[in-house]
Description:
Blueprint: H1 2-21, H2 29-53, H3 58-63
Amino acid sequence: MRLYLVSLLIGVLVGVLYGLCGVRSPAPPVVALMGLLGMLAGEHAVGKLRPLLHPPSVSDEQSQ
């Protein structure tokens, strides 16, 4: 939960900085949200595929 709040606060801070500088967001809101969705999908895909691509070695199993 804390991670979500920190992410939200950083996003608000960036939005405030954009507003103070008079700069518009570089992407329309829908495009930005689709980009974020793509980032999340990619992050989860890597998390799921990493064990398949790099199975734990024998030494890793013995240390646990």
